[in-house]
Amino acid sequence: MEVAGGPRAPEPGEIRALKQCLLSRNQSREQYGVAASSLEELRNKACDILAIDKSLAPVTLVLAEDGTIVDDEDYFLCLPANTKFVALAGNEKWAYNNSDGGTAWIAQESSDRDETDSGPGSKWKNVARQLKEDLSSIILLSEEDLQMLIDVPCSELAVELCQSCVAVQGLQNMLQEVLDQREEARQSKQLLELYLQALEKEGCVLSKQQESRASYGDERDAVDSGIRESASAIALSRQVLIALKEKPAPELSLSNQDLELVAKEDPKALAVALNWDIRKTETVQQTCGQELSLRLQQIQSLHSLRSLSARKNSLPGEAQNPKRAKRDLT
């Protein structure tokens, strides 16, 4: 059965599959089996079979299990066969009736089959029968049910669904796609939550830094108040200290002058200012020195290329100048 993307009434001449349903009145033990291809058709049959006065319209159909109002055509198509509906007329309110468990299922052909299907190993068969009756019920299956049908051998599931192995393999692939989409949605939600937590944490850090600036207006103060006095003894600016302490690769965000200052700074004083151990401080200083050397090499290479290019461009001009050539000969 094909389910459209949005609620719509059946077009004239369109043939739609009939869905088996059970109808009853509120607080009544009598129920009637009907077949309807749409929600409107089921509502009309409820008025006729249950002898509901037309003057009490509109008639509302609810699930006997929990009183859920069924007023959407797509939702009606997704419900399994033999779902029990209670028809409410006028201002009637749904009342729970414990004489029925709500959604009813087709009775099995024999009591032996009932006992067999009640075992834990045959749970997938019940889910397969539900899928066989209404393919659109895939959207109502839990992830556990989806995985269970995917893990069932293709040949066994084909026998249960009365389909070929090729068709069942395609069905299992579709079930896997549905399962993957749900997993992707879950991971996306988790990533979004982590991102929001990181933003909140960053906001707290910035707030603390602003409070620290307000309390310690001197630009020579350190990143926190615990190392302020020790940091004032070194030549590095507060911005450089923050970059060293917070950036994952501080050498890439510092200028050549700052790299030179970091590399030449006393390791012990810098370690105290950053509240680091001496080994970590020396490693960062060495990295900054290497970055500075690399930049200087690149600058020298660039100057050499420019000089070589300038000499090549000047040679043709000198050969074409007769006065210059004559002066060189004398």
From TrEMBL:
One Gene Ontology term of the molecular function aspect: protein folding chaperone
Compartments in which it is found: Cytoplasm
InterPro entries, sorted: CIDE-N_dom (IPR003508), DFF-C (IPR027296), DFF45 (IPR017299), DNA_fragmentation_mid_dom (IPR015121)
Keywords assigned: Acetylation, Apoptosis, Coiled coil, Cytoplasm, Phosphoprotein
Coiled coil segments of this chain: 168-202
GO biological process assignments: apoptotic DNA fragmentation; apoptotic process; negative regulation of apoptotic DNA fragmentation; negative regulation of execution phase of apoptosis; positive regulation of apoptotic process; thymocyte apoptotic process
Self-association and partners: Heterodimer of DFFA and DFFB.
Protein name: DNA fragmentation factor subunit alpha
Gene: DFFA
